[in-house]
Amino acid sequence: MASRGKFSSKLGFILAAAGSAVGLGNIWKFPFEVADGGGAAFVLIYLVFAFILCFPVMVTEIAIGRKTQKNPVGAYEALGFKKWKFLGMLGILSGILILSFYNVVAGWAFGYFLEILRGNFEIGNNFSIYIAQIWKVGIYGTVFMGVTAFTVSKGISGGIERAAKFLMPSLLIMIIGLAFYAMSLPDAGAGIVYYLVPEFSEVTFEVVYNALGQAFFSLSLGMGALITYGSYVSKSDNIINSAAWITVMDVGIAFLAGLMIFPFVSYLTNGTMENFSGGPGLIFTTLPGVFSSLGETLGIVVGSTFFLLLSFAALTSTVSLLEVPVTYVVDELKVSRKKTVWIVAILIFLIGVPSLLSNGYSSFFTNFVTYFGATSPTNFMTLVEHVGNDTFLPLGGFLITVFAAYVWGKNNLIEELSEGNPKFRDGRMKKYIDFTISYLCPVMLGIIFILTFLNRFFGINVF
To answer: Which of 16, 72, 219, 286 has its CB 3.0 to 4.6 Å from that of 224, i.e. a possible disulfide?
Structure first.
């Protein structure tokens, strides 16, 4: 097993795993989910779910990986349950699909960094034109995938861990710096109040459901990344402690993103906090206007730093997404890591080409499919996101908890979690993990999967 490599330190594992969780969703999706969910009340619900629901799933995935020292497919076979290899394949497929479109968006962010660095703030007014410039965004995406592959090709300690030790502190410094600057702008106070003062009258079942889904998706659960990273962890490491730090870092960066985004929006709207959209519209259309209003020099500094931050956040995730299928090929097919990395990276990039084409360049991929009951078509990139991210991840999480509790067995899980943490066997945390993995997590993740599947593909909204 020595040839597989391993993390050289507990800190390296925590930073790499936290980097896997921290991504574009923390910087852009979390803030606009907060906006749609009524502000601070959503934040509070999200934090509760992150620790009550997601934390147990995280420790379970890491424990399976460390126990077997295998990739997500090999792990189930190593535990003696060959029929459950399909669950590992589902995780790998999820990661491949997500990386195929995620790299496209990461390329957009990297391109914005370069554009704003040279003072092109007008790009925010031409976003739809920009993403349809296939050769330009294609080159940006190629460069991003190349950097991702280069990092992974260097191995666990020499590539992924070393990159995480640079990227995560850099990301944290940039986001804290931008948050402080944003909070110093005129009318920023209204954004901070909106973000931090709960309005519980806005809380509905839909808000709770969205907070639950955001917490699960935010932590990169259900796709085998943490099983993979867990396979490189020492038996002497305390999994419970490491998972707690990973969760705190992920939700902490999401929280800081809100402290950065909402003051910027409030500054732009003169404190009204109205008429702004989330998602790509917020990041790629609204914020360049904010940066432009700061003046050319300051705007370039703040704007380019923001999109460099976004690129760093994306890179920490693309590295973990690529590592999952790479580890599978290295373990099962005994192919060298460097050769595997570049072959897999090229294949995933090619799988992502239709997503690249589906934002206005190709009418076929832009109007790719019309869901049951829908009045307008869905593009290829959104379809891949709905399948790989919104459907496969909660399904994978649900099945992992069922496997751990009722197939592998809670006693075996508890035994593995006790390695490096002897007090766990007799503590309250054991009872907590036992209950959540057996009952709470399977029920809640099953509900998320069913409701999301019905909503995404059949237009059925139960709220």
So the answer is: 72
